[in-house]
Amino acid sequence: MVDDNEVITVVSEQGQTVELVSVEEWIENIDSLAASGKGVLIKPVDDVTLLKDSLNKIALIALDFVGFDDGRGYSQAALIRNRWGYSGEIRGINTHLDQLQFMLRSGVSTYDLQEQYQGSNEHDYTHGFSICYQAAANNADMKEKF
Amino acid sequence: MYQYNADDTAFLVERVDQFEKQLNRHLAGDLDAAKFRSLRLRNGLYMELHAHMLRVAIPYGILNTEQLRALADVADKYDRGFGHFTTRQNIQYNWIELPEIANLLRDLSAVGLHAIQTSGKAMRNITADPFSGLTKDEVEDARPYCELIRRWFNIHPEFSWLPGKFKIAINGAKLDETALQIHDLGLNIVYNEANELGFAVYVGGGLGAAPMVAPEITPFVAAEDIISYLESVLRVYNLKGRRDNLKRLRIKFMVREHGAVEFGRMVDEDWQQTKNNPELKLNMDELAKLKKDFALPIEPVDLAGFTDTVDFNYSIWKKNNVRAHKLSGYSIVNISLTQLGTAPGDATSEQMRMLADLADKYSNSELRTTKRQNLVFPYVRQNQVFELWQELAKNSLASPHQGTLAHVVACPGGDYCDLAKAVSIPIAQQVQQRFDDMDKLYDIGPININISGCENSCAHHHISDIGLLGLKKNEQEFYQITLAGETLHETAIGRKLGRSIAGAEVVDAIEDIVNIYLDSREEGENFVDVFKRIGITPFKEKVYG
Questions:
Q1: Residues of the domain holding A94
Q2: pLDDT at site B275
Q3: Are residues B524 and B453 in the same domain?
Q4: Structural domain includes residue B170
Q5: Same domain, yes or no, for B180 and B234?
Q6: What DSSP string runs through B33-102?
Q7: CB A69 to CB B30 under 8 A?
Q8: N or C: which end of chain B has fewer CB within 10 A?
Q9: At residue B342, does pLDDT exceed 80?
Q10: Is residue B115 part of a domain?
């Protein structure tokens, strides 16, 4: 993520630079922002139901997981991906190694870690559990038991 | 008896493996302190005053003897030879070394035990009726539902980082042994008018500094819809619960601020969009399988002509510790771990092994734990109760004071716990010493005393006949007394008696309260009945007069 002259951008999975706007900015100018390929940056306090009707016009959604104990992003991701069926990229930003599998299962598709830890293997935390006991947006590679 | 299968055990091992990596990163200085705190609490680990405390779950209070022996082995191998059975059907070890925790948890996972989500801001071990499946007055055996809901909340991807801790109770009996309405979420099994099984849902109960009795938010959710309904409750809380004020994190504050009706509406609005999702329906095939796994493991026996031994001490013990079983020829036996001169709920490894041997011999290798810190033998043949009593008496575990005033419930308190403002256990011991005359205790009858060392209320003082809360004033220990809390028939928070009382005088105050009760009691009245009739004033006048 780059913060350049207060314009926040991310490089998408496909390698395109996508400029992010806030939820408030998006709902005020949906059509023009959609036409220029903008993404939306969702903060934990944001009400994601505001985006429901225009979701498929959003080029990329970034969810901010800045607070380790603030679990709102998981519900936001689940609503956007699972309930409303958003098919684009959901990027977790400021994410945490120890929470990666929770986040990916909730519907986040790509992520930027807040901090790297030495001697830790990301795969241990994206795939630490092979068995799951509940439906979720993404239970790929897991044995479901529910 | 129900046992975990290979998948469940593999899951427990995966959890230990991950926690071990996190512990190692912490020990290597390679994990942020606040993150480690959050992670270790979710694995039941507290950093305490003198050492580290580990809280191990006993899911819905059921143990087999293999598990009890494993708990005894852990006490010897990793602790100082004992464990503390808590008021929420967990067991705690107080002297654990960090580098040994992964091995300890691996030992437990081999017998299907774990410390997953026994603390932290997550869904916690379910509180259940220790007499589930055993009594005639049951609406439905809660255990199969407990197990399905327990599975569902294990590392739930969406609801593992909640605003606050989240405690669940599930009750299937007419008399509520779970204290359902002091939980963040309580499920009461009911049948609707069409005779379908479901749950009345209560949300927002809790003790602590702002005790609240959970209101009912819906009178009926069909059993097959309970997972989707729970998800909606959790989603509303996760998205809109307060995270800004550390003293208002629990869901009770959200329910209080919005009101139960509005909170119920918010849940319903979410639920309408998910209730028909087939992935969220309760798995009825799995439920049927669990019902078989939890079916009574014993057949009725015909004991026509059997007469029990008459013995003064045995008869006293039996009156208070043996309950009727739904199956003819059987009894339910309570074993009090609260001995004079020892900490309530503590059991030594020797006691655990001895109880495991006795449960193998007399109770089909199964035990239950209760919120009064007892162990229960669920399947004792009536013609073996006397023999069992003799064995217990030989091992100083046939205390007749269970169910009397001298059976005090207490948290570990200031001797063990970082949070405590006061000692609980020495006060409990003083009460036991003051009221040590069995004739007097029987005259007084079943009064509960619960002592919590701080506002976290681990000993449930708010819902006791006589509740004590430890406070600190000018470095001196004081106790605030509350009277006439209850949960069995209806849920009520105890009333404050008045200003707090110095530790040295608190046992005198308890004696005053008991004397007012005895002087005022009419035929058949218990403590709460008397309190409701005469009010708080006579107690106040006696204690402060």
A1: 2-144
A2: 97
A3: yes
A4: yes
A5: yes
A6: HHHHHHHHHTTTEEE-SSSEEEEEE-GGGEEEHHHHHHHHHHHHHHSSSEEEE-TTSEEEEEEE-GGGHH
A7: no
A8: C
A9: no
A10: no
Q: For position B141, which CATH number holds?
A: 3.30.413.10
Confidence of residue B302 (pLDDT cuts 50, 70, 90): very high
Chain A CB within 8 Å of residue B289 CB: no
B277 and B205 fall within a common domain = yes
Among A105, A130, A146, beta carbon nearest to B14: A130
**B491 and B533 share a domain?**
yes
Residue B402 domain-assigned (yes or no): no
Instruction: Kindly state the DSSP code that residue A37 receives in the 8-state scheme.
Output: T
CATH number at residue A33: 3.20.20.70
Instruction: Out of B70, B92, B109, pick the residue that ends a domain.
Output: B109
From the candidates A103, A117, A127, A130, which should be mutated to test the interface with B, based on the most B CB atoms within 10 A? Answer: A117
pLDDT at B340: 60
Alpha-carbon gap, residue A74 to A97, rounded angstroms: 15
Q: How many domains does chain A have?
A: 1
Task: Categorise residue B445: left if φ over 0, alpha if ψ from -120 to 50, beta otherwise.
Answer: left
Q: Is B250 on the interface with A (CB under 8 A)?
A: no
Cα B207–Cα B371–Cα B140 angle in degrees, nearest 5: 100
Verify that B242 and B324 share a domain, yes or no: no
Round the average pLDDT of chain B to a whole number and report it.
93
- Cβ A2 vs Cβ A18: under 8 Å: no
Task: Name the residue range of residue B263's domain.
Answer: 134-289
Inter-chain CB proximity B161 and A130 less than 8 Å: no
Angle between helices B506-520 and B527-534 (to 10 degrees): 80
Number of CB atoms found within 10 A of residue B450's CB: 30
Of B331, B360, B394, which marks where a domain is finished? Answer: B394
- On the question of pLDDT at B19 being above 70, the answer is yes
Given a cut of 70, is residue A3 above it in pLDDT? no
Residues of B in contact with A103 (CB under 8 A): 157
Q: How far is B503 from chain A (nearest CA, A)?
A: 38
Tens digit of each residue's pLDDT (9 = 90 or more) over B37-76: 999 999 999 987 678 999 999 998 999 999 999 999 999 9
Percentage of chain B exceeding pLDDT 70: 99
ipTM here: 0.96
Could A119 and B39 be called an inter-chain contact, meaning their C-beta atoms sit closer than 8 Å? no
Residues of chain B with C-beta less than 8 angstroms from the C-beta of A68: 32, 34-35, 38, 161
Q: Which residues of B touch A117 (CB under 8 A)?
A: 25, 30-31
Closest-CA residue to B170 (of B23, B51, B59, B263): B59
Q: How many CB pairs below 8 Å do chains A and B form together?
A: 112
Residue of A nearest to B287 (CA): A146
